[in-house]
Here is the input.
Amino acid sequence: MLLVTTTDQIIALLVAERDRLNRAIDALQGPTKPRGRPPKNPVFGVATPPASGSSKRRGRTAAQRAAQAEKMRAYWAKRRKDSGKN
Here is the structure.
């Protein structure tokens, strides 16, 4: 009796064997935990540069920064004075 196989049958057998081998390899490797920082959210895509006109720095005004600096100088002066009493 002559065994006649077609190319499609051979390919199907090879694909099935490949799938079995891939499952065996996955089972031997076990679950893998991803390492490092997770990727950015793909929903939002790549970060876009700010629109023109929005590059103006927002935050404290010069007067607010000066007032805060003065408060911090007083704070540290008091700390230095109090540490001398210990």
